[in-house]
Amino acid sequence: MKKHTAMFSAAAVVTLSSLLAGLAGASALAATKHAAKHVVKHAAIPNGGTLVQTFPTAFGANLIPFMDSSLYTATADAYSFDPLLQFNQNGQLTPDIVQKYWFSPDKKTIYFQINPKARWSNGIYITSKDVELGVDWLASKSYNDTYQGQYGYLVQNIVGAANPLPDGTTPSGFKILGPREFSMSMKTPDAAVLSSQWAGIDPLPYYVLGKIPMSQWKNSAFNKMPSVGSGPFVNVSIVPGQSITQKANPYYLFGKPHIAYNIWKVISPDVVDGDLASGQVTMAGIQAKDVNKIKQVPNLALSIQPSNGFSYLGWRLNNSVYGKEFSNVKFRQAVEYAINRSALVQAIDKGYGKPENGPLPPINFWYNKALNNTYPYSPAMANKLLNEAHFTIKNGWRTTPGGRPFNPTITISSGDSVIATEATFLKQFLNAVHINVKILPPINFNTIISQLGNDANGKQPIQGFFLGWNLSTDPDPRGLWRSTDNLNATTIDWTNTKDPAVALNDKLIHLQHSAAAFSIPYRQKILNQWQVLLNQQLPENFLTMDDTITAYNKNLHGVVFSPYGALYPNRWYLN
Question: Residue 134: CB partners within 8 Å, gap ≥ 6?
């Protein structure tokens, strides 16, 4: 769960939920960006052509990395900006902008060496100053105070960056050692800092953005359409909320892409199958109900991958109307028993998925298998827990423990009818245990994120909400699950440290990245305990892990499909 793209490292990405059928290999790339590796040159591979991919709903307006909260914006950014290091299809950390790194003997400092071939798309070489600017941005007051700073945690472990710094100030723990060498230091050894945080830092073009005060970045021309990038494709035109056109980067570190243009279009999954069949779209995530239909189209192929993410039903625990009720763990446990998640997988996903039982999906190496089959469908157990929590029944419906009418609402995203269908199922399951829940009319995904992010007093209209997390490979919960994390406060608000469960959560999160956690068995033990805690406390109601189903034209070759996305776009080609 990290990076509205990039990585959760348990970190996070607020997505439309896996119910969007995955955004195809393309957008799943936002969970890990596009881990580019060595390109294999072959005389028989043709160059040229246009690749068309899709977003199921509108992307955000800010294209400087990490500024926008939309997964879809981050997905486009992931094609234009490479991070320091990448993950491959096996979940292994691999070189990218950085070709080599090593730890100091005390493991408090990591030294990095930039690949001497790494350039911006206009041919200018990437230097340590560009990395420094990327760090300064994430540590700055402008980013953390103005743009919510969801990913400020990526640099907080660097000495001097624990709190937001004046714009343009470099944390004392970041040192430039040469044009292509730098180091980052922390106060104590951290077993997860590289894979979960520092690897995902994006260098930014110092010769462009270094001349603009960070407070003005949002209104800059570069933010509306970055003119250079370090990724396989570079933006050339943007129709806000509708499409992004990108061209091949001739100086891409791993070789100029074979495909000349990559276009992102906003097309609902409800109608994208027609555009796939006609050839207007090259690759897209599809709904499970359309799998058999796609199989009948001669020019299309399918990839079905287990998802490294899951859908969930969240409750604003600080909500001014029902926050006290949502904060009652027995309420959330009752909801988990009340929802027939196995039936959802069959009815909505046609069997392409599994019930989700905790903060990590089964595909994750660190998943605690002891959580399998927890919270089996049981309306009887749900009613028992609600009765114990004093949600009494009056005129057929539950009231609050204080006797007020209890009519919570659930907010869902527009752009995909499957989301509305699943929400209808959720309503039916909750109605069956006398919770009079109402599904609100769908609204734009970015509007949901905005309302969640601006709800410090609990007075925004969102009470319950139906979304999902898109994760990366490292399970580090920092960035999302600590009581101090911005993404926690702006989604569920499970932040009350007076709650012993929240305090234990913070303690376990600290232990899983401590010096002792360099031992994999130790880290696994702590992460197992943490997953059990969240399974019992249910700060959000875990629903399903839906397989990522991608349909693509058979004239597209070279794609490596994985649970972490469709990888290596510079290798893809059309014929």
Answer: 65, 201, 202, 203, 204
The alpha carbon of residue 548 and the mean position of all alpha carbons in its chain are separated, in whole angstroms, by: 14
CATH number for the region 309-546 comes to: 3.10.105.10
Q: Where are the alpha helices (DSSP H) in 262-412?
A: 272-278, 291-295, 323-326, 329-338, 341-347, 379-388
Task: Give whole-number Cα distances, 354 to 351, 381, 530, in Å.
Answer: 8, 21, 21
Backbone angles phi, psi at 550, to 5 degrees: -120, 125
Residue range 502-528, pLDDT digits in tens: 999 999 999 999 999 999 999 999 999
Query: DSSP secondary structure string, 366-402?
Result: T--GGGTT-S---HHHHHHHHHHTT--EETTEEB-TT
Residue at 305: amino acid letter: Q
Tokens of 407: 């009519």
pTM as predicted: 0.85
Residue ranges per structural domain of the chain: 309-546
Beta bridge partners of 565: 562
Euclidean distance between CA atoms 500 and 527, whole angstroms: 18
Residue 351: pLDDT over 80: yes
Provide the percentage of residues in the chain whose pLDDT is more than 70. 92
Which two tokens mark 3?
A: 């990076």
Q: Give 104-117 as a 3 state SS string.
A: CCCCCEEEEEECCC
Q: How far apart are CA 433 and CA 46, in angstroms?
A: 60
**Cα distance between residue 39 and residue 437, in whole Å:** 53
Strand 409-411 with 464-470, pairing: parallel
Q: What is the pLDDT of residue 143?
A: 95
Q: What tokens appear for 369 in the block?
A: 């298998």
CA distances from 489 to 141, 457, 494, 505 (A): 18, 11, 7, 15
Give the residue from 470, 546, 51 showing the smallest Cα distance to 286: 546
Tokens of residue 571, six digits: 């290798």
Range name among 38-47, 91-100, 188-197, 431-440 with the lowest pLDDT average? 38-47
Given 3-state DSSP classes, what are the helix, strand and coil percentages for the chain, each rounded to the nearest 5?
30, 20, 50
Phi, psi of 207 (to 5 degrees): -70, -15
Q: Read off the pLDDT of residues 303-318 as tens digits, 9 standing for 90 and up.
A: 999 999 999 999 999 9
Contacts for 52 with CB less than 8 Å, ≥ 6 apart: 263, 265, 280, 281, 282, 283
The residues, any chain, with a CB within 8 Å of residue 213's CB and separated by 6 or more, are 167, 168
Question: Would you say 455 and 462 are in contact if contact means Cβ atoms under 8 Å apart?
Answer: yes
